[in-house]
Amino acid sequence: MYYSDDIVEEVRSRNDIVDVISGYVKLQRRGSSYFGLCPFHNEKSPSFSVSQSKQMYYCFGCGAGGNVFTFLMEYENDTFPEALKVLADRAGIALPEQEYSQEARRQRDLKTSVLEINRTAAKYFYWMLKSPQGERALQYLKGRGLSDETIRHFGLGYAGPYSDALYRYLKKQGVSEQLLKESGLMQVSEKQGMYDKFWNRVMFPIMDVNSKVIGFGGRVMGDGKPKYLNSPETVIFDKSRNLYGLNFARTSKKRNLLVCEGYMDVIAMHQAGFTNAVASLGTALTSQHASILKRYTDEVILTYDSDEAGVRAALRAIPLLKEAGISTRVLHMDPYKDPDEFIRALGTEAFQQRINQAENSFLFEVSILERSYDMQDPDGKTRFFQAVAARIAAFEMELERENYIEAITGKYQISFEGLRRMVMNVLMQGAPARRIVTRPPVRPEKEDGIRRSQRLILTWLAEYPQLYRTVSAYVHPEDFSDELYREVAEMLYAQLEQGQVNPARITSHFDGQEQQRAVAEIFNTGVRVETPKEQEKAIQETIYKVVEHGIAQRTGALDPADLAGLQALVDAKRRLQELGRLHISL
């Protein structure tokens, strides 16, 4: 639903960002800002700053930043309406009722009802596990080394030996046949009518990132088939868009996520202290899974089983993760089959060592590729290195190619120059489609320097509003080279004209978290100075640089017949000369 800017701003202004974030992060005052350990990446020294005056946060380590809405959206993985509702409730503000179409209202009510049925079923399964009927299932979990606390933490349960027990229980709770059908907890046949999908199984509730039960997995007790059974897709459950354990792993302060194959692996790793473990839900990793993982980490360690199926799963996952921009390593489990078995045999320290030693995903792919060639045969060995060269040539950056050539030559004792020539031959064969950049271009670096100068001006205007009259005489919103910067400058200039500065409100204007991060960076750009005099000199030099760049941009785009534009450039150059004599005082 659309909420007016006034309502959004009222909710934001009634929730002081320091108070809100203090509920998640321990903050200490340092000067005019508050600092703490960043909740979005693992760090030992506080680089996460919260500004009460700007009502914004910014991490100088990972770049996370925004206002109080952005924080809840990133930390809790809330949508904007969800974050708005949480903060409105916190401030005691009643939001306008949402207007739904009849179909939208039906879908909303259905989702709410199915969530409630799943919650009731999860409590029922947990109760059954603790009952005399669940003794065998409880002993199975205990035999797998799980503690009572772990069983409670993951809400594990037991679906009893009768195929209509849950059906009868939910009917007593007043749940309709239609809702039972929609829930995914029941099956229907002509012979039996409606009956439980899960019975005589250890039950694993599947939760979304907000710890709401959206489905179940069940492991059969005994020799029944299938061994593992998952909920079908429903209005609230899509297995390709959810990861088991993510509701816990997303708050882990580890810098990476461990992706494994099954429920028990995740649970065993969490119990052992590896609370950053997740698993796909009875399906291979998908591009949607990779996109979800990217929200929480830049590095994944694949901890799949060491058998052939695990190797194939890793090989399928690696390109999907790379496409999502995630760095990937592969953990070697030998001589054990899975993480659960490894940890129970060798303990947590040995498993942490394996994590530290996890292999680069490209080198893992190469080691699997090697199995297809006879390395004792000269011809087979040559064809292997030709295949490796073709894979290295696929990397866009020359430096990346050089690094992998060096890694392969070190591992396989092949000449660096020999493999490099192989790679260059592959590149030359595809030369028309690829332009090889041998040195970084100079212009982008210069351009980035200008962008930094433009960010500095906007940061200073937010921190020292008294500079506005001086700065605005020389620097106008159209002087900012980036569209986002121009839009921020226009809004900030409008605020300053009215005698107010509200960077957090400007942030709320932008919808996407990436844009909000960029706005947070704009208002948190700094330069190291020792004295007010040095600060004033830095401001003057930065204004000069931005104005000079703006003149150069307009000169290049000027139509020779545009006399008004020419006169404006003459005036701008005159003002640039005045800047050299200008004295700026804070």
3D architecture notes:
With 586 residues, the protein is α+β, with helices and mostly antiparallel strands. The protein folds into 5 domains: 5-91, Zinc finger, CHC2-typedomain (DNA Primase, Chain A, Alpha-Beta Complex), CATH 3.90.580.10; 102-237, DNA primase, catalytic core, N-terminal domain (DNA primase DNAg catalytic core, N-terminal domain); 241-366, Dna Topoisomerase Vi A Subunit, Chain: A, domain 2 (3-Layer(aba) Sandwich); 372-433, no CATH class; 443-579, DNAb Helicase, Chain A. It is built from 26 helices and 16 strands. Strands 1-2-3-4-5 form a 5-stranded antiparallel beta sheet. It starts with a helix and ends in a 7-residue tail after the last helix.
Number of helices: 26
What is the CATH top level name of the largest domain? Mainly Alpha
Mean pLDDT: 85
Termini distance?
Answer: 44 Å
Q: What's the CATH H-level superfamily name of the largest domain? A: DNAb Helicase, Chain A
Low-confidence stretches: 431-447
What is the CATH architecture descriptor of the largest domain? Orthogonal Bundle
What fraction strand?
Answer: 5-15%
Please state the structural category.
Answer: alpha+beta
Q: How many structural domains are formed by the residues?
A: 5
Write the layout of secondary structure elements.
Elements (H helix, E strand, L loop, with lengths): L4 H9 L3 H6 L5 E3 L2 E4 L11 E4 L4 E4 L5 E2 L1 H8 L4 H12 L10 H29 L4 H9 L4 H6 L3 E3 L5 H8 L4 H7 L2 E4 L3 E4 L4 E7 L5 E8 L7 E3 L15 H4 L7 E4 L2 H9 L5 E3 L7 H10 L2 E4 L5 H16 L3 E4 L8 H8 L1 H9 L2 E2 H10 L7 H16 L4 H15 L3 H14 L13 H21 L4 H5 L10 H15 L5 H6 L4 H10 L9 H26 L5 H17 L7
Parallel strand pairs: 12-13, 12-14, 14-15
Antiparallel strand pairs: 1-2, 2-3, 3-4, 4-5, 6-9, 7-8, 9-10, 10-11, 15-16
Helix pairs in contact: 3-4, 5-9, 12-13, 14-15, 17-19, 18-19, 20-22, 20-25, 25-26
